[in-house]
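Please fill in the sequence for the structure shown.

STRUCTURE ENCODING:
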């Protein structure tokens, strides 16, 4: 609810800017044309993910992974790492934070090992693993739309830094929790899905959706179609699951308010000073400078407004990806660095898992610079 209140306040600020002539109505119309399809995608893919989880798809996948690990925590962790990366790449970081977190915490509880390494893996990979495709992060969708890049063109630029970001994140995670990750556990028996028809519909829907998200279609189209298929299936088989909370309205209000408020700041030329800080050029030092500014801004004010404020100063694909490295992979220090982190924490609280924010921030201060610098240098020398 708090993020919805913040979003509502930001919407009022943006509306005031329009009323007093700071923000022209034409600029608002142009902004709406740009972001409405993205918000439709966010709503649709969230509904898809929630209903797939309701069908038991993610739980079955996680239990199969636990069986494959054969009692070795390190193998279970590596499998969770792969699952978190795949979920983030194809279904977005917020989906990973919301749906995978309870799965990995439950897995850790069943295995009688600490949930903290698995929970940290989920939230860090949700952020640092969100570089590869436009659908992986809301900032990526904005960037791809800004430059008119096909998903495969986008991936061609981001592939190497995305891989480096995940590998460095994994190395830091292992280095900070080696004893817990080298433990052994007794896997429990897997449980079948409650409704095999819904399970199959969800599995087939996701299997069809994933390639369509990189097909070149506007991503909101296949996501909306997939959501419609699952809604119809649940309306027939389990109508009680179709509740208003499936729609992430708080996220929509929050994101809308951020978009409008930052556009108002641009119109008032309040962000011009960032041009001096962000610099210019595509050399390694210039890209590190831009990525560093992006990471710092994301941890101060959240990655969405940080991206929007700095986008005008990332005027080519390479600089834009450097900015994305900063605002995506670097937003793991403060709890408010990304919405995914806030959503992740809400799920942990609901499952009675305590996270020390000071320790979280100290670990983030260790990991974020390593990830951002490594991924940015990989971009500089491969783009």
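FILLED IN BY: designer on duty
SEQUENCE:
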């Amino acid at each position: 609810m708090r993020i919805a209140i913040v979003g509502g306040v930001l919407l009022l600020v943006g509306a005031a800017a329009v009323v007093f002539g700071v923000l022209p109505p034409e600029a608002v119309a142009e902004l709406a044309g740009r972001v409405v399809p993205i918000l439709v995608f966010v709503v649709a893919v969230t509904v898809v993910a929630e209903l797939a989880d309701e069908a038991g798809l993610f739980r079955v996948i996680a239990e199969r992974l636990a069986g494959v690990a054969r009692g070795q925590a390190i193998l279970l962790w590596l499998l969770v790492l792969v699952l978190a990366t795949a979920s983030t790449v194809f279904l977005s970081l917020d989906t990973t934070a919301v749906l995978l977190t309870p799965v990995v915490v439950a897995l850790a509880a069943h295995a009688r090992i600490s949930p903290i390494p698995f929970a940290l893996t989920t939230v860090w990979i949700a952020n640092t693993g969100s570089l590869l495709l436009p659908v992986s992060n809301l900032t990526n969708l904005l960037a791809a739309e800004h430059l008119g890049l096909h998903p495969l063109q986008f991936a061609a630029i981001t592939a190497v830094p995305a891989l480096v970001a995940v590998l460095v994140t994994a190395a830091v995670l292992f280095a900070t929790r080696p004893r817990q990750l080298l433990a052994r556990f007794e896997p429990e028996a897997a449980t079948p899905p409650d409704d095999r028809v819904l399970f199959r519909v969800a599995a087939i829907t996701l299997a069809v959706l994933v390639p369509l998200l990189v097909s070149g279609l506007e991503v909101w189209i296949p996501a909306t179609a997939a959501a419609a298929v699952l809604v119809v299936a649940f309306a027939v088989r389990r109508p009680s699951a179709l509740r208003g909370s499936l729609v992430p309205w708080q996220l929509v209000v929050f994101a809308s308010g951020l978009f409008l408020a930052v556009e108002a700041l641009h119109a008032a030329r309040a962000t011009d000073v960032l041009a001096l800080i962000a610099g210019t050029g595509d050399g390694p030092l210039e890209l590190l400078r831009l990525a560093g500014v992006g990471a710092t801004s994301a941890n101060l004010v959240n990655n969405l407004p940080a991206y929007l404020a700095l986008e005008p100063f990332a005027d080519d694909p390479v600089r834009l990806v450097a900015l994305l490295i900063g605002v995506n992979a670097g937003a793991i220090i403060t709890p408010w660095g990304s919405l995914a982190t806030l959503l992740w924490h809400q799920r942990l609280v609901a499952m009675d898992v305590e996270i020390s924010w000071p320790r979280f921030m100290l670990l983030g201060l260790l990991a974020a610079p390593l990830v951002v610098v490594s991924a940015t240098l990989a971009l500089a020398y491969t783009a």
